[in-house]
Amino acid sequence: MSKSFEKYIPFVPLKRPSRRWPDQEIKAAPIWCSVDLRDGNQALVDPMNLREKLEYFHTLVDIGVKEIEIGFPSASETEFEICRELIDGGHIPDDVTIQVLVQARPHLIQRTFEAIQGAKHVILHFYNSTSALQRKVVFHMDREGITKIAVDAAKLIYELSQPVIAGGMDLRFEYSPESFMGTEMDYAVEICQAVLDNLHATPEKKVILNLPTTVENCMPNYFADEIEYFIEKLPGRDCAIISLHPHNDRGCGVATAEMGLLAGAERIEATLFGNGERTGNVDIVTLALNMHTQGVDPQLDLSHINDIREMYERCTKMKVGERQPYAGSLVFTAFSGSHQDAINKGTQYMADSGSDKWEIPYLPIDPADVGRQYEPIIRINSQSGKGGAAFVMQHSFGFELPKSMHPEFGHIVQVETDRVGTELQPQRVYELFHDNYIDATAPYQLVRHSFAEFTDEGGHSHVTFAGTLRHKDTVFQVQGSGNGPIDAFFNAIHGQKMDRFTFVDYKEHAIKRGSDSQAVAYIHLQDQNRRDWFGVGMSHNINLAPLKGILSAVNRWYNATHSGE
Prior knowledge:
CATH superfamily of the largest domain: Aldolase class I
Strand order of the largest sheet: 1-2-3-4-5-6-7-8
Number of helices: 17
Number of strands: 14
Helix content: 25-40%
């Protein structure tokens, strides 16, 4: 057996016996900062062009993101020009702040100040790597040397910012100790405090301290311990906004962000659908909608998730996975029979109870909240159960099958899925329903009929049915009376070799709204062997639909019991 695991150095967690974050709750949205146009863009096989970046930027604005990192303008002429187009082209609303990234290097900082001239609201985000591994392997420096890089950059940025701020720009500062998770926490506090001091941070002019999970290398709870420790030990805590920039190398980016918020962070840098280097950044959509499902307003408008996904896929050439939380094509879909049954009962419960709370099993969020439709929630394959077919008939076609009918129709659909071996589309489910019930029009057929009705002195209705039936080549007359049209018809046919049935139940509703509506009637009969037989009739005449339903049930019985003739 391979022992390749032995070469890895395990993460050493902080000892935090007095941790407080597990008892906290997320009760408000953080400050959101999108890094799609910088961190996300640099991770693309083919980076976005100007047109695509502008469309992406405007989508982020429409969603409600107020801080947007637009790029690394000192890195290339392309990045510089995109920054200038956003500013000079008037694309930036007055309530949106653009953020620009720069390494802690003097000539790049100078170039960045040139790029942001004329903007109203800007966050200048600078960084240098601080982790023990980077110091040892990349920079060959001790702590003092790394701190000097950060402090020198802070001094230069502060100096260059003064005339810009005096000229009317709302310019704020952000510092990231890159590879924060791999940095000794006492040193992370030390270097960040040095930056705060040299940027002259105050409670009125706070500096963003962005603590990146540059490469996720520990469990989210260990990260929360680090954040809580950092906040507790930072002398200038009241002069800082604590921001997180989680990546997803361990697949825990969302948990890392949420636990970091519990530990005291106030701001999240993220991307739509988690795009980013390697396994990506944390997904702003998942984070925001997680809050939405807990009754917290995420302060973002994700009510048109399909449009957002379409823009994202077109501009980035990336694909949103079918099982991606909230946005994937299959996340609001149930194939399992037990899941379908629970969803069906949940929708019925909400309709019956009039509840204003979302209480449907297996659906943590109402699909309508993100602009998704109900039709694809339940899809039919060989794993589906009796409730799934009934759900499709109701939500796709308006047929409200009685619960007692669900097992029979579910079995019909199950046989078909086993036969074809693939998923059945809703139209095929409808065809099976129509073929088995509506089209069950032989051998018994109603040729013509009439009703006569009178009400006695006691207010009781008496109905007489007279009609002509055809059975194969035989035509015969029937007549019967009862307390209503259905009772009268059933009594009329009772003596015509159809006296083997007991009437069990009846349900009727309109299948369309307005003057063109049709009545659909569901009939439940039992034969002499106590076997259940269901029939369905449809007609614009409300009295005729149940008669067709009764004959449908009788014909289904006849065809099933006389198939050898």
